[in-house]
Amino acid sequence: MNTLEQENLLINGLANNNKQAIETIYKDNYSVIQGFILNNNGSVDEARDIFQEAMIVLYEKAISGNFELTCQLRTYIFSVCRRLWLKRLQQLNRFSHHTDSVAETVAVEEELEAHEKHNNDFTLMETAMGKIGEPCKSLLDAYYIQKKHMQEIAAQFGYTNADNAKTQKYKCLMRLKKLFFAQYKNGN
Prior knowledge:
Elements: H1 3-15, H2 19-38, H3 44-64, H4 73-91, H5 108-132, H6 136-145, H7 150-157, H8 162-186
Helix pairs in contact: 1-2, 1-3, 2-3, 2-4, 2-5, 3-4, 5-8, 6-8, 7-8
């Protein structure tokens, strides 16, 4: 079964309130929409609202009986969400640019691809972090996520001084880069 057939089954499932179809649409599309809205002056709650509005638009199209998908489902959902979000930003006076000019906006496909690549890179990094092992994982977490100073890290991990902790952090970072780029090259 090709992608178009699968997506038409999802749309039919949505029209018939099939729980599995609805969950699949959410699972396959929500994270990209949330990332787009968070990167464009929005919050998680606003992303949920916009995605829900787009699902309602899609549902109404699906039950109309004459809806024909002319692009990938994710592209359609993204373009609906993008339009809804830009409209909401205008209403909230958080966006002053006039959104009707298609020539002045980035193509939806390109924007979607960029968000998907960004999400894929995060997934690869998360996998690499899972493979790096201890104490590297905790050390990098302490420095980059918890924003601890080298003196604190040296004390926490038992290094004799901040310079030794910095050297170990560098080695861990190089190991993480090696794991990340090995996955990146393999396309995993």
